[in-house]
Structure prediction request, 1000 residues.
Amino acid sequence: MLDMTPKDIQERTALRINPAKTCQPIGAMYASLGIHNCLPHSHGSQGCCSYHRSHLTRHFKEPVVASTSSFTEGAAVFGGAPNLRQSLKTIFQVYKPDIIAVHTTCLSETIGDDIPSIVRKAEEDGLIPDGKFVIHANTPSYVGSNVTGFSNMVKAMVDYLATRELKPDSEINIIPGYVDPADMREIKRMLGELNVTGTVFPDTSDVLDTPMTGSYEMFPKGGVTIDRLMKTGSGKATIALGAFASEAGAQALETKCGVPFRVLDLPIGINATDQFVKSVLQITGEQRPSPSMIDDRGRVLDMMTDMQHYLYGKRVAIFGDPDQVISMTDFLVSAGMRPVYVITGTPGKRFEERIKRILGDDAPNCVVRASADLFYLHQLIRNESVDLMVGNTYGKYISRAEDIPLVRFGFPILDRVGHGFFPTFGYQGAMCLLTNIVNTLLDRVDRDSAEERFELVM
Amino acid sequence: MSSRKSYVMPPVDREEFVRDVCSVYPNKVAKKRLKHIVIKDGSDNLEIEANVRTVPGIITQRGCCYAGCKGVVIGPIGDMVHIVHGPIGCSFYAWNTRRNLFKPREDGANYMNYCFSTDMQDSDVIFGGEKKLRQAIQEACDIFKPKAISVHATCPVGLIGDDIQAVAREMTEKTGILVMAFNCEGYKGVSQSGGHHIANNKLFEHVVGKDDSNVVDDKFVVNILGEYNIGGDAWEIERVFARCGIRIISTFSGDGSIDEMRQSHQANLNLVMCHRSINYMAEMMETAFGIPWMKVNFIGVKAMAKSMRKIAKYFDDPDLSRTVEAVILEEEKEAENLIDEYRKRLEGKTAMLFVGGSRAHHYQELFKDLGMETTVAGFEFAHRDDYEGRQVIPVLKPDADSRNIEEIKVSSDSERYRPRLDQHKLETLKSEQLLNHYEGMMEDMNQGSMIIDDVSHEELEQLILKFKPDMVCAGIKDKYIIEKFGVPSKQLHNYDYSGPYAGFRGAVNFARDVDMMIHNPAWKMIKAPWDIEPTLNAETVA
Prediction:
C-alpha cells in the first residue's frame, strides 16, 4: 500500500499529491441543497456537476440532484449566457423549484461569464416565473477549497435574500458550517433545549438524511425556506460556526442588515460546545442551559475520566477541512491526547495560528500546516509514527500502509455509515465521537495484546 | 418452486408514455428528446439520435471529456503517473472512485492509489500554467522516477492556452521519461465519449507498438480492448483464457501496464469489449499492424461461451477448439447449477438499464441467463452505431462538437505490419460478421421494448412510476433516487463494490447480488403496520 512514497521529504512547489481538499463548487452545491425547494445549478461543463453529485452521493448515500449548463466548446469560446438562459427556462418548467442556486466553475470563471447580468436579462425576458428566485455565487475552483465554495454560497444567500424589516425580531441566526445533516439537526435540537427560536442556514437535515418511504421527493421537506432566509436580516444576532465556512456569511449579514455576529469554533468537543452554549445564553439573557444539557455535558466528562488511561499521551495525526480540524484538535487535547501532525489542504495562515494557540506549549513539537496534502502527512508518519489518525476516508490508505487505526471524521466519509445520523456537535456529539475514538483504540489493544495480557475488562 | 410467470409489464401504451413524458419539456426541448426515444416495434431501420448535446438544464447522467480520457481509459494504467493539470477537483474526484483494480507487476510500480495534480491557483490562470506543469513533471520524475507520465488538461487549461503538448515534448527530452499530454478539456465533445477518442489516439501514437522485445511466439495471443477490470472482471476473464491456453498480452486498460501495452502490437487478435470507448484503437491497430478485431461480450454465461467459441473459430485450430469446448462445458455447467437457485426466484422479473456506452447492452445477456427481461435500456454517451450497429457509421455526419475531436491518420507500419490471415479468409470472416462487426444494442432487444438515449432525471422517474420495474441498473447519481421509490438499483459502473461480474464465475456473483437486492426483506417493511390496517385502540387489552 502506497509503496511508492519515499520516507525522505522533498520540497514540492508544483505537484500536489493525494490532496486534503477539493474544489469550491462542491461546497457551493452542498450549501444550496440546504435551501428548501432549491435546485443547485453548476454553470460549467457537465463533468463538474456529475463529479460533485457523485461525490456528495457517495458521502450521504442519498439522492443529490443538481443541473448543469452543459458547456460545449462553442460555449467555452463564445460565453455561456445562452446555456444559462436555456437552463433557467428548462429547470423552472420541468423541475419546478422555488429557487435556483447557480455556482460557477473554473471554466465559466476563466471566460468571465457575468452571472448577475445574464440572470437580470433572463428575468427581463420572462424566463424566471413570478415568485421564483435565482441566486448565484462565484466559486472559481482555483481559489481556496471546497470550504470556500460553501462559504461563498452561504454569503450569496445573504446577499440575495436577507432583508431588514423595521422591527428586529428576537430570533437568532446560526450558520452551522460545512457539516453533516446530523449536526445541523443537533444544532436545532440544542436551540430547542436552550429555548431559543432561530434560523439555521443552510440546513440539509431532512434533505440528505431522508427516510425510505417508497416514494421519491425531488425536493424533500427539509431545507431553510426562502422566507426564513429573508428574515435572517431581522435577526437579533448571528452565530457563525467555523470561521472558514461561516464567517463570510455572517459578516455579509452584518454589513447588509446590521445583524451583529460572533464567530465560534464548530461546537465539537466540550470546550467548543461550552462556548456555543455560553454565546446563546448571552444573547438570550439566560443564566444556565437546561438540566438535561448539563447532564449530557457531565456524561461526556464522565467518559473522559473513565477511559483516560487509553487516551492519555496518544500521538494523533488530524487532517481534513480547517474548521473541523481546529475543533477536533482542541477536543483531543482536552482528552489528554497529543496531536502531533495537524494539517489541512485548505490555504490559510489563520488555521496554523489557531492550532498553535490550542496546542500552547506543545506547539513546537507538532507539525501544523495549511495547504498541505496527505502525501506529506504520510511521509511525516513514516518518519515518526502515530497511535491514531483522525480524518476523512482518504486516510485509509496511510492507515493500512502504516497499520494505524483511523477514526473517520469530516468530509468525505465514503466507506462507513453513521455520519449521516450521529452528530459530532454538542455534548451528545462529543459522546458519539469519543465512543468511536475509545472503541477504535480498544479494538487495537485487543488485537495487539499478547494472549496472556488479553483483558476481559477494559 | 417458481411460478414461471411470463414477463409482467404493466399495460402501458408506449407511445402515449413517450408523448406524456416529453410534454413536460419546453417545446423545442421536447422535439429534441423525442428523437432520443425509440420503441422497438418491428419496423426495420429504427433510428435514434445519439452523441449530441444534452440540453442545458436537463439533469443528465453524463460527465465530461476529461472523465472519459483520464477517468475511463488512461487512469486504469497502474504503473505510471497521471498528472491532472488544473484546479484540484478534477483529479480529486477521479481518485480511486471507479474501481478499476490493479495489481503491480514484478517491478512493483503501482500508482493506483495516488492522486496527482498541479492544483492550479488563480495566479496560474492569469499568468499561464506551463511553468507550474513543467515543475510538477520534474518533481514527479525526481520523487518517483516513473517509466511514464500522462498529463491531462482540464477546462481552464485550454482556455488560457497552455501548450501542454510542447511541455510534454520538452520534458520527455529533458528527463528521458515518456510524458504524454492529453488535450481532454472538459468542454470538448458532448460527453465522456470525446475523451475516449483522445485517449485512444495518444496511446496509439506513443505507446502501442513501441517495444518489439520479448516477441511472443505463441499462436493464440490476444489483447482485450475496452475491459476496465471493474471489481476484477479482467482477472476472471484471464482465468478462463488461461485454462483454454489463450495468452493475453495486454488489456486496455483495466489492470493495465504500460509495458504490456507497448508490446501489444504482437497479438494475433484484438477482442473488443466496450466498443464505444475503444473501437478507435481496434481499427488503428488493424490498419497499422494487421491485427483483426472482433466484438466480444464476456458478460453472461451464454455470452461468455459464445465469445469463447468465436475466438476458437477465428484461430481455427482443432486442439484449441477442443479445449475451449471442454472448458465451456465444465464452466457453463458449474455456473448454471449455481445460478439455477437464483433463477427460480428471478424468472419473469424485469430490469431497466441506463448506463455507459456498452454495459446497457452487455448486461441484457446476463439478465437473460437469470430469466429476466430488459424492458427499457439506454446508453449515457454512446453513438448511433452502438445502438443500430456499425453499418450506420458511413452515414454518420460529424457535427460541430465531434469535429473538435481529432481523427488521426494511420497507415500501415512498414516494419511491423503482418497479415494474420490470408486475404480470402479475412474477407470470409468479415462477411460472416465474425470480425469488424457490431450489431448494436437494439437488434438484441425484444419487440415492445424501449430504447432511451441520455435518459433524463424526469424520464427515469416516469419510467419507474409507470412501468414498475423490478430492478433499475444505473450509476451512483441515480441509485438512491431509484431506491427511494422502493425499487432496487444495481450500479453498473462500480457494481456496488461487488464483482467480478464478467465470465462464468462473475455471472454467479451477479445472480447472487441481484437476488439479494430484489429479495431484500427490508423492501417489504416500507409499509408499516399502521399503513396496512387501522390500529385498534382499546383502553384495556384483555
The first strand of chain B starts at residue 37 and ends at 39. Residues 1-5 of chain B have pLDDT under 50 and may be disordered.
